[in-house]
Design a protein that fits this description.
With 142 residues, this protein is an alpha+beta fold. The chain has a single domain, classed as 3-Layer(aba) Sandwich (Chemotaxis protein chec), CATH 3.40.1550. The chain is 42% helix and 28% strand. It is built from 5 helices and 8 strands. The chain has a 6-stranded antiparallel β-sheet with strand order 1-7-8-4-3-5. It has a two-stranded antiparallel ribbon with strand order 2-6. The radius of gyration is 16 Å and the shape is globular. The two termini are 25 Å apart.
Length: 142
């Protein structure tokens, strides 16, 4: 399980360290993809495979499934951590998330998100505000 928030600087070669406590989970590899919001999602290989299975077993038409697969898989990157626990962020993903020199790595249960610091502060405030409303609505439905 991934949780917590970590701030790093990207080095001159475009690499960012992965928090040490997460490196073991990512030893087999990590898949980076554009997030729905302006972030990069980072999945351990086994979680990416689960996501891929879920996406391809849905009840959508073949045409929609092809489009979904193109949108998800054509923009993803499979990487390995280097000997110092870093990954090189692909330029298209850095552009998508507007990450330049600082990155916030956030644990989101079974995957990580990488954020531009300013975007993360805004998203964190909105998420925290809405979280309590969502929790209260869940409690009413029990």
């Amino acid at each position: 399980m991934f949780f917590g928030e970590f701030e790093y600087r990207i080095d001159e070669k475009g690499r960012v360290p992965i928090p040490p406590k997460f490196r073991g989970e990512l030893k087999a590899g990590v898949v980076l993809a554009p997030g729905v919001e302006k972030c990069i999602t980072a999945y351990p290989l086994h979680e990416w495979r689960k996501l891929a299975d879920e996406l391809t077993s849905g009840s959508v038409t073949r045409g929609k499934l092809r489009r979904l697969n193109r949108a998800i898989f054509a923009t993803a990157f499979s990487l390995r951590l280097d000997g110092q626990g870093r990954i090189a962020l692909p330029i298209p993903l850095k552009q998508h998330a507007e990450i330049v020199d600082e990155v916030i790595i956030v644990g989101v249960n079974n995957y990580l998100e990488l954020w531009n610091k300013v975007h993360w502060e805004s998203e964190k405030a909105a998420s925290q505000e809405q979280a309590w409303q969502i929790i209260e609505s869940l409690e009413r439905h029990r």
